[in-house]
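Researcher: Next entry in the queue.
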Amino acid sequence: MKDPDAFDAFYKDARSRLLLQTYLLTGDLPAARSAVREAFTVAWHHWSKVSSRPEPESEVRPRAWVHAQRRHTARVWHREKGLDPEVAATLEALGELGSTPRRLLILAEVGGVGLHDSAREIGVTLEEAARHLAIGRAEYAVQRGVGTPEEVEATLVAVGAGLGDVRWPRPSILRRAGTRRRRLHTVGGIAVATVAVVASGAVVHDSAGTPTSLERSVDRPDTSVSGEPDDSGSPSAPPTGLTTDDLLATTAVEQLASDRTWTTQTNNNTDGDGLVLPCQQSRYADPEGLAGFVRTFSSSAAGAQPIVAYQAAEQSRSDAEAATTYETWSTWFGGCTLPRAQLVGTYAVTGVGDAARIFVLQVPGEPSSLLTAGIARTGSLTSTLMVNAVGAGDDVRTQVSGLLAAAVDGMCEAPGGGTCAAEPVVEPTLPVLVGDPAFMLSEVDLPTVPGVDAPWVGTRAQAAEANDAATLCDQTSFVVPGVADPLTRTFLVPDAGLPDQFGLTQTTGRLSDAQVADGFVGQVSDEMAACEAEDLATAVEVIDGTEYDDGRTAAWSVTVRVTEESTVEFVMGVARSGNLVSQIGFVRSGDADLTTEQFLSVLQRSRDRLAAANAAVAAGG
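Model: Structure for this entry, 621 residues:
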């Protein structure tokens, strides 16, 4: 029996939220209103099913969005006349985003939907969702002229203030329309089904020989997992072996600071938004896992900054799914979206479980924080550790690798466990693949600009019709025969009061083979070497020239005298790995500057990302 009062209350509560989301999606208010109204009509049609869901709104929203996009005008982006300038600016900025980044941005900032649920709703992988959401936030911030995540959310939510005058039909009208729709569908469905069954003489059965129903076949969740068959012949999940007893003891963490008092808290991470560890993007890396816990270790000492350590442990349904969990955590840390966080290094850890990595990130502040994160997998169990040493400059990779080993030894003998730990060995390795595309720089690769509190924001990579990374000396073009997929993007710091010319630009391309790519880099080097002789107003200084097994890097500092009193200074570098090449340009602007060492670290990271992409291709990834 359907409850009309419950439907009416749901309709009145959710309609304004769905209207705002749908309007932001299309920029077309009439289409958005019609679509939301239609979606609620269908919701009453299926109210028994919709009302049984934990989040009924998640059942109505996708239908409203689909209807809105169908009803939406054929023009690229609808703009109403007479809009408030702030609303118009927001809609225009959204209109510049791709469909997937826009939908994910709306779900996250307006819909309050977590990343896992957003990925499922849109139909992309978790990694793709994280990447597209980061792109959407960054591009929207640039287009809208805002800097902080709070400003991004505020400008989107503010559009709803102008929708209060929208008139809605009474709930009873929608229920009557939904009832008529149900009757029509029932009559039509019976006729079609009768013809189909009579004509075929067939009845659909499940594996046990029981006739199925439409409701059962559609609504029953897929519970199949990898594992050994049980007595019925169906696959079964491995036994849940992870308990709180398998987590690190406080005595293991005390090695970080033995002179301090440590307190411990443990839970299964079901409260709040579930984002406990810095850089974490969803409650669980494996939302379909069998068990998950979070343990927090906090230290205190008189007159000293606190040290906080975290352990997140998850058990997946199979070793293969745990490997995906391991990679998900890796992309969260390797592509950390924490504002102004910089990835200092990525390290492979051997001798610990079936796979292990460490990430070191620097987060500026007063005082700054050094985040050292470690991830290890043993069988179907994954343990993630992070040490947040506020104000500490000490390298704690050795301690974290030891904690990883202890964590693996605590879990490897549990049901579902795998390889235990030996003596850990930590070595630098290439960064994990993050970003879109993964061989280009991301915000997490860039150091903090001195005296600037706002974060870097990168534009979406686009075809490199022009190359703003080049100098007047080399004037390198990537739109030439032999260069495939030329792409460029620029990183800015919006709303920081910096000069208009401030920014870092990267342009990349793929050449036919490594020898041609090396010749491409060599040509840039030759042009830079000849520049001073050809232009007496220009001074060029070589600041890097490093050879690698698979390529090289080269960089120059260039000073151009514009007048007797003024000069323009910029730095430029090129990097090659295999047949991939990258050029980076940065204009120096007074106090808003990167040191030569910082620029060279960015150039090095650029080469490492090219190398990581080549390694993935070679491995078939």
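Model: Residues 443-618 form a domain with the Protein Transport Mog1p; Chain A fold (CATH 3.40.1000.70).
Researcher: Noted, moving on.
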